[in-house]
Amino acid sequence: MAATRLFTPAFAMLTVVNLAYFTAAGMVLFATPFLVTGPLMSSTAAVGLVIGSFSIATLLVRPYIGRIVDRVGRRNR
Q: Residue 73: CA atoms inside 13 Å, Cβ hemisphere, count?
């Protein structure tokens, strides 16, 4: 049985990309209340509305995007 390596350059790149994505998603949740209540001068109820609508939109859109990605496939460079 041939030994395969887990820590390959592709694995390291995938790990870095996932870290960047989840950091950005966390920053959106952290920064949204400051943006909505600060420069946009809205109430805290508007913060809940913004975050809730973002969550609902992602739940509705992701299945369709997943099907498109499965159909089209990955782009090769």
A: 3
Residues ≥6 apart with Cβ < 8 Å to 32:
47, 50, 51
Q: Please state, for a pLDDT cut of 70, what percent of the chain lies above it.
A: 92
Question: Is there a contact between 19 and 27 (Cβ–Cβ < 8 Å)?
Answer: no
Distance CA 32, CA 14 (A): 27
- How large is the angle between the packed helices 44-72 and 9-37, nearest 10 degrees? 150
Alpha helix positions (H), 1-77: 9-37, 44-72
How much is the mean pLDDT over the chain? 88
